[in-house]
Write the structure tokens for this entry.
Amino acid sequence: MPSRVSDAFRSHPLHFNHHKHLDFNSLKELPESHAWTATPLDHYPCTDPINTTTTESVPVIDLNDQNALDQVGHACRTWGVFQVSNHGIKTSLLHEVESAGKRLFSLPIEQKLRAARSPDGVSGYGVARISSFFPKLMWSEGFTIFGSPAEQARRLWPHGYSNFCDVIEEYEKEMKQLAGRLMWLILGSLGIAQEDVKWAGPKGDFTGAIQLNSYPACPDPDRAMGLAAHTDSTLLTILYQNNTSGLQVLREGSGWATVQPIPGALVVNVGDLLHILSNGLYPSVLHRAVVNRSQHRLSIAYLYGPPANVPISPLPKLVGPTRPPLYRPVTWVEYLDTKAKHFNKALASVRLCGHFNKALLAGDDH
Ligand SMILES: C=C1C[C@]23C[C@@]1(O)CC[C@H]2[C@@]12CCC[C@@](C)(C(=O)O1)[C@H]2[C@@H]3C(=O)O
Ligand SMILES: O=C(O)CCC(=O)C(=O)O
Ligand SMILES: [Fe+2]
């Protein structure tokens, strides 16, 4: 088993031919390669009709509100996602990172491919990692940054990469701080304090990745998919979306709810590792990105995880005689490796209590 996040995908490389990377802006029709077809893999183990939509709104929480703790707890239990305002990240930094993303994606395809993510790597330009589980391609391109952005940025702009790096590094620093604050707020809403999480002491080396997602305007949006339904393999994810909607979350019992962009707000969603840590009390949220005919959409996700090699398991305080531990311990690296292999069955594959067996994994068609 690899021990570093950067090595998590060694055993499941993602091979994509460069000719599959399209210059989206030059296309007047949706190519067959991108005409999305629902597959059984779209269907997670949930009871909802998968294509129903709802007009319900994701909770918006003012972090300065004195009831923020309770509101966060309620949102995590019932939605697995919420938007935050008064989060302390300067609007100017959000705009700068948005411009940096736009600058990157508007480069010619040949230039972007110079920073292509290697098949077994984490950082760089390419299609979403989960693409290999689907017969058709998604209408999006992505750029993943894990650790320093310098190596990839130098390939994109050999003579002028420092501005991009400065903005990304500043964003990483600010996001890491906010993600820590949000994690303790979320755990606090479960009655968990810092001393209850031994591995998360002051030296706890939490890690984060930045995922820039670009969704060009699409000539046939109803037949395309920006980013297929998935949960994040994180503790939590903080997402900045520009003023174009596209993010949808699955609301149990109701269907897909659009997360309307609110200027300056950030979207926070529960990831699979928080789902495990909370012993299933705060379920990770299934989400996807749809595309539209006239507007380019950009989103920037900060994927926040625990120290790479710490076994994550249900917190002892959330386990008891009436609530046995639902998941076995798993490190972030091991979980990313499992996700790369089993995608939507990864969480079930680490579940205890006989809810899952090897026969289910045998159905993987990856
Ligand atoms: C830390 C990570 C989580 C992620 C894989 C990655 O190494 C970096 C990219 C992340 C992302 C973003 C888009 C959706 C997703 C499922 C994917 O394909 O790449 C997530 C991965 C994840 O959360 O499993
Ligand atoms: O673009 C979006 O709104 C969703 C992005 C996302 O889910 C991700 O990067 O993990
Ligand atoms: Fe996501």
